[in-house]
# Entry
Amino acid sequence: MITPYLVFGGECKEAMDFYRSVFSSDEPKVMNYGDYMPEGSQTPPELLRTWIMHGEMVICGTNVWFADEAVPVSRGNNIRITAKVSTGKEAAAIFDALCVDGKVTLPATETFYSVFHAAVTDRFGVNWNVVAEEAPKAGFESS
# Structure
């Protein structure tokens, strides 16, 4: 099993709220740094008290982990998450929501395997593919 793990530098709660609204996910499980300190650890700096030490949320049937890191986090292109949903309509709605303040990297297109495939880097720097499981129209020919 592979669990996607998204790490942020203080924006984790905002990101989880955003993804929860985009994917209509249930309430995530969240533990802040201020709620747990292992024995022998020092109290976290005030800044970290409200940051998320560990969060979990199910997105399109996959458990995704989240956290804020105290060390600097750079936004990169080292992870891409594919959200597979049933219909093109559902895929388009998710894609449109992820595009808000994001950057489209692959405009929505019909492929030989799907009525909808698109990609976007969202406002948090996370790269998403959005794909519908709905088959393309009969007679689709790739170019």
